[in-house]
Amino acid sequence: MPTYRLLLGLAGLMGAAGVALAAASAHGADASRLASASAMLLFHATAILATVALLTRGLLHDGIGLLSAVGFAIGAALFAGDLTLRQYAGHSLFPYAAPTGGMVMIASWLMVALAAVVARK
Q: Domain containing 72: what range?
């Protein structure tokens, strides 16, 4: 349960950051990176909330479902963090940080699908 609370807290922070980046992208010149970063944070904050809800209801395999929620948080942070850093600092978090985050988010969605069909022990 403490892990679920941590994930819920991260989802709240991601949602707040997503809204802030949406506002920044609406008011900034050439801020398309921020719009993409905002969208990924908002979508995956919601995905974390849904995954935790499904886990608590017993509708997902515990280990795989938990790993997918953690992956959503890590992937979105890498993706959005890299795009935001590029926008404001002019350099990347590290080479291929955004694509790495994107791949982690894709893998996390696939893990949700797997967690839904794998039998619980």
A: 2-117
